[in-house]
Design a protein that fits this description.
Blueprint (H helix, E strand, L loop, with lengths): L4 E4 L3 H13 L4 E4 L8 H4 L3 E2 L15 H25 L10 E5 L3 H8 L9 E4 H7 L9 E5 L3 E2 L2 H14 L3 E3 L4 E7 L2 E7 L2 E4 L2 E4 L19 E11 L8 E3 L4 E4 L4 E5 L13 H14 L8 E11 L4 E4 L5 E5 L5 H18 L14
Parallel strand pairs: 1-2, 1-12, 2-8, 4-14, 12-19
Antiparallel strand pairs: 3-7, 4-6, 5-6, 9-10, 10-11, 13-16, 13-17, 14-15, 15-16, 18-19
Bound molecules: flavin-adenine dinucleotide.
């Protein structure tokens, strides 16, 4: 059957859009995924819901208030998504609102200044080193100060993706693996579907949600904002009982633990194109940062390493293009797991009704 809407890319963004389209708008959706749904950035992610810890000001560059408000709303959406997925498929996302702690061993005043703007907007506490160690006893004695965000949290991305895929299928979304989209079909300034390697799929509306590959999808109009890959490497170790309660961030790296003791150490930010490797230098960097933060990690056995590509752009890219019926949902960079459920809700409304309850002009795909 001819779908109403085709979504290109079966990562967290594409699947959140598809689930919202199918469940709330009751339209026929096909998600085209060239490989395995969820197997790229979305499963590589640590799963930090860092609406506040990720929102910091740098000298002379105030944090984008539109984006901050979007991040806060997205974090709240994760609580309801977890419940919704349990109802739909019997298991949730591993959602844990256990807080995040941003620490420093260096310039305390600089750390506090980065987050001072949040005092008027959200719950945040400025701590000295001893207070930080009360929250996270395994923290290094070298940590001088921290900022605590009690409402930030985490999910388990591979679990979330499994639940999301099952919910999509149960809601009537057709999820096609091995479907490589060559380009968007455009006739007379209207989207008409997509060209696949082995045929054509017609539809009146197309959503490009191909992560860090989005700008490589063929036949997109010129003048759209671009996305590029930023590689991140993660090292997984085992700590039982879990070495930390919430997310712990240092001046650069971070550590978080699942309830079962899997402990993720992250991550690099590398401009190396789509080269999917775990490197000696990357692992060295991640381990050096994590062990400085939590010295007891030195005896933890390593149980995995992986890398993935963040779809990088200065701001998320979300909305309509010049071509009628063609939409883009990408550029979620370091915070795609956090943002995707809310992006999916907003974009689904926009695609079907022409409007949504947030002003998306700051995130327009048009340059
Ligand atoms: C190491 C690492 C750690 C991270 N940690 C966090 C975190 O803690 N918190 C957080 O919020 N975010 C985190 N992120 C960011 C987050 O993972 C991404 O922003 C998010 O997963 C992007 O989702 P996506 O659906 O846009 O992209 P992807 O998950 O990459 O999905 C895009 C999909 O499109 C498919 N595709 C591409 N081209 C085509 C085509 N032509 N035809 C068909 N299919 C195609 C791909 O195969 C892929 O499956 C992290 C990322 C990395 C790499």
């Amino acid at each position: 059957m001819r779908p109403d809407i085709v979504v290109v890319g079966g990562g967290i963004v594409g699947c959140c859009v598809a689930l919202e389209l199918a469940t709330r708008h009751r339209v026929k959706v096909v998600v085209l995924e060239r490989a395995i749904p969820g197997a790229e950035a979305s499963s590589a992610a640590a799963g930090i819901l860092g609406a506040q810890v990720e929102a910091h000001e740098l000298e002379g560059a105030p944090f984008d208030r539109d984006l901050f408000s979007f991040m806060i709303a997205a974090r709240a959406r994760h609580a309801s998504l977890d419940v919704e997925l349990v109802e739909r498929v019997g298991f949730g996302t591993g959602y844990r609102p256990a807080g995040a702690l941003k620490t420093t061993m260096g310039d305390v005043a600089a750390l506090h200044a980065k987050y001072a703007f949040q005092k008027a907007l959200a719950r945040v506490a400025f701590l000295d080193g001893a207070e930080a160690r009360q929250l996270e006893p395994a923290l290094s004695a070298e940590v001088k100060a921290a900022v605590h965000f009690p409402d930030d949290g985490q999910v388990d991305p591979p679990l979330l993706l499994r639940a999301l895929h099952q919910a999509c299928v149960a809601s009537g979304v057709e999820l096609r693996s091995g479907a490589m989209v060559r380009g968007v079909r455009v006739e007379g300034q209207r989207a008409r579907g997509v060209d696949l390697v082995d045929g054509v799929l017609e539809a009146d509306r197309v959503v490009v949600a191909a992560g860090s590959w989005s700008s490589l999808v063929g036949n997109l109009p010129t003048g759209l904002r671009k996305v590029h890959p930023v590689r991140g490497q993660i090292v997984q170790v085992e700590t039982r009982p879990p070495i930390v309660r919430g997310v712990v961030m240092g001046d650069r790296g971070y550590v978080l633990a699942r309830a079962d003791g899997r402990t993720l150490l992250g991550s690099t930010m590398e401009e190396v194109g789509h080269v999917k490797e775990v490197t000696a230098g990357g692992v060295h960097q991640v381990l050096t940062q994590a062990l400085a933060l939590l010295p007891a990690l030195a005896s933890a056995p390593i149980s995995g390493t992986w890398s993935g590509f963040r779809p990088a752009a200065p701001r998320p890219i979300l909305g309509a293009t010049f071509v009628e019926g063609l939409y883009v949902a990408t550029g979620h960079h370091r915070n795609g797991v956090l943002l995707a459920p809310e992006s999916g809700r907003l974009l689904a409304d926009l695609v079907v009704t022409g409007r949504c309850d947030r002003d998306l002009s700051a995130f327009s795909p048009i340059e």
